[in-house]
C-alpha cells in the first residue's frame, strides 16, 4: 500500500501537516484510539509506503521511517472543556498568528490559506491555558475523520507561544467519535499541559455545533531551530 501527501495538506511550507498525516497512518490501524509518532517532517508529493511494523504500521520513504502508528488506550485522553461558540469566535479575533505566524501556509491554521483551500482555524488564547476557535466546515472536508484529526492539531500548539518558539507536531494520540456536517460551525479547544526543554505537551477537543464531541487528542510538540 502507498499514499502521497499532497501539497495542499502542508503544515510548514515543505512538509505535511502533522495532524493530517497522523490521520492517514491511524486509518490503517482499524482501532478507536491511535498514537502516531512523526519521525521526520513528512515529505510532500512523494509516494510513501505503508508497511507492517512491530506493533502497528510504518510510513516509509525509501529506507527512512516517516511515521509510526500503534493502537493506544482511550484512558490516556481527557477532554478540554468547551466555551460557547460566541466566546470562541471572539477569541479568534486575537489569534496570535494574525500578527506573527511561523507557518502561514499551514492547511489547518495558516493565515495565507483562502476559505475552501485551508481549514482556517484561528485559535485565540483565553488566559487560562486554553485556546478556542470556531471551525466552519467546508463541504470537501465534511464527514471525514481525517479532518477531525487535522482540527485536533494546531489549536493545541497555539496554547503555547508558538509564534516566538516555533514547534512541530512530534506525536499525537487521538480518538474520533463523530464527523461534522458541511456548513457546521464547530468549536475546537486547546490546552497547554506543560513544557520541558524542546518538548511541549497539549490537549485538544473538537465539538459539534450541538455540543457533541467530535474528537479529542493529546500531543507532543518539538521546538524547531530558528535562524
TrEMBL record:
Superkingdom field: Bacteria
Name of this protein: Thioesterase family protein
SUPFAM superfamilies documented for this protein: Thioesterase/thiol ester dehydrase-isomerase
InterPro entries: HotDog_dom_sf (IPR029069)
Amino acid at each position: 500500500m502507498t499514499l502521497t501527501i499532497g501539497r495542499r495538506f502542508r503544515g510548514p511550507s515543505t512538509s505535511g501537516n502533522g495532524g493530517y498525516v497522523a490521520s492517514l497512518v491511524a486509518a490503517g490501524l482499524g482501532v478507536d484510539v491511535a498514537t502516531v509518532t512523526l519521525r521526520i517532517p513528512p515529505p510532500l508529493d512523494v509516494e510513501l509506503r505503508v508497511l507492517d511494523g512491530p506493533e502497528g504500521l510504518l510510513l516509509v520513504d525509501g529506507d527512512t521511517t516517516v511515521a509510526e502508528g500503534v493502537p493506544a488506550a482511550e484512558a490516556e485522553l481527557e477532554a478540554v472543556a468547551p466555551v460557547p461558540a460566541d466566546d470562541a469566535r471572539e477569541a479568534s479575533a486575537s489569534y496570535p498568528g494574525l500578527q506573527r505566524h511561523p507557518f502561514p501556509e499551514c492547511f489547518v491554521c495558516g493565515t495565507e490559506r483562502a476559505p475552501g483551500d485551508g481549514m482556517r482555524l484561528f485559535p485565540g488564547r483565553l488566559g487560562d491555558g486554553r485556546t478556542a476557535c470556531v471551525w466552519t466546515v467546508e463541504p470537501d472536508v465534511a464527514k471525514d475523520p481525517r479532518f477531525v484529526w487535522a482540527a485536533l492539531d494546531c489549536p493545541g500548539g497555539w496554547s503555547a507561544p508558538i509564534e516566538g518558539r516555533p514547534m512541530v507536531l512530534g506525536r499525537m494520540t487521538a480518538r474520533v467519535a463523530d464527523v461534522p456536517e458541511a456548513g457546521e460551525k464547530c468549536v475546537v479547544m486547546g490546552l497547554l499541559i506543560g513544557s520541558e526543554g524542546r518538548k511541549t505537551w497539549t490537549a485538544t477537543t473538537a465539538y459539534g455545533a450541538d455540543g457533541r464531541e467530535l474528537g479529542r487528542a493529546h500531543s507532543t510538540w518539538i521546538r524547531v531551530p530558528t535562524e
